[in-house]
Amino acid sequence: MIRPLKLGHGSGVEDDSTAMSAKILSIIYKYRLTKAADAHDRWVEGTPKFLDIIENFVRQAKSIQMCMPAFPFKSANKVYKVLGTLPDRAEEAALEYMNTMCAEIKAIYSPGAKLLVVSDGLVYNDLLTIPDREVWAYGQELRAMSAKRFPHIEFSRLRQLVVIDLPEQLDEVTYVANATNFRRALLTQFGRDGLDVHKLIQENEDTRLTFCGHSRFLTNDLRYIFPKRGDLYVTFLFSHSLPSSFTIFSTLLPIPYRRTIDSFKTPTTDTLHQQAFAAAIKHNFPDHLRLSIHQSTGEHKISLSLLPTKTSYTTPWMCAIAYSADGTLTSAPKGDFEDDRKYQLVHRAGRPSHFEERSASELTALGEVIGNELNRSANGGWGDKAINGTVAGKGKTGGPCEYCGKATHAVERCFDKHPHLAPKWVREKIASTTTSNTTTMKTTTGTEGKE
Questions:
Q1: I want to staple 113 with a disulfide (CB 3.0 to 4.6 A). Which of 64, 250, 320, 420 is the partner?
Q2: How far is Cα 419 from Cα 318, in angstroms, rounded to an integer?
Q3: What is the pLDDT of residues 300-325, one digit of tens each?
Q4: End-to-end Cα distance, the chain
Q5: Residue 308: burial class (beta carbons within 10 Å; 0-12, 13-18, 19+)
Q6: Using CA of residue 29, residue 32, residue 34, residue 38, what is the dihedral sign?
Q7: Is the dihedral of CA 121, 286, 31, 93 positive or negative?
Q8: What confidence tens digit (pLDDT) does each residue in 221-271 have?
């Protein structure tokens, strides 16, 4: 449970700027990341520092300036985790959530607040097989989305982080051509020579928590990138030179997959990038209130959840979102929603956007469709199933299907023609029914033969 911010005796509540700073921080704390059991104790430790930063703006009657490394690119796992390479409703909901936080501050403090998003896309994308042009496209759509709807959100530019020769207005070609130059400049200008990364992770809790946040997604993020060849599977454990908390999984991985994970999970690779990036932010935005999407000690930065969800999936580039019938948002890998008949996929502008809970009437109609098709499968048919499209009666299906003639879907969603499109639970039911019927037929045939 999130407890309200309290100031101790002698904190100067009588002073208007101190009182206002406390109110502003209380608003920000409403959006805190609450995954850790000791989260509240950590926030208490950092509160005096955060109050000082905010009060520095309040005393000058200036807008509260905050910065957050976030929104790098969509997960590399497009098969199970996310809906595509571009921002969807999940990103829109996250920006809206953060913009609402800033709007709440403005409601009590007229100068308002600004959140500067510092994308770390080019810092890590090469380690996760994400093309530079994909990072560019993702960022451009976010900027357009923010400029149109979220006035309290801004995005930083590359030249705000490193000294690099770039034109005032970037295009995709220039951005991609200079991506490697940016990474080199970041490490050259803000990297620390001779840094003992293993020791830093062992002794610095914030560094350890950030590294854990990066590394724990690796298995799912890269599992579909490389071909899985049984003869190349090997048992893989995190390095024994790491703290015991890093031995977080033991699994069978194909060698190409393992080598790529090795290059990212090795502290020297990942943490050098992370340390240089953090140093660049501190150098260029020294007075900003530092926010983070990762768990932290709470002493130097405030960890926030980007989505109003009760699940552990709090970053929109690592999941999809769904809306229940009452409008409540929940988040999970897209594969979880696809396998749950309760949800249907919604498209916007021709692209997958998010999931919505089906109404009771839709679920009833869906049940009838499934029942009919399972009966049909008993006679050798696959069944129609507009399961993850739109059920009959919604007027959005694009039917009738040119392949099977059903009105519930268009040909590109026909599970007769494209069985692999059927959700997992449907495929399992069909397989179960077909197997059962086949067994029955064999038994009957065998009996007749004996007679």
A1: 64
A2: 27
A3: 889 999 999 999 999 999 999 999 99
A4: 72
A5: middle
A6: negative
A7: negative
A8: 777 765 454 333 223 323 333 333 333 333 334 444 444 544 444 444 555
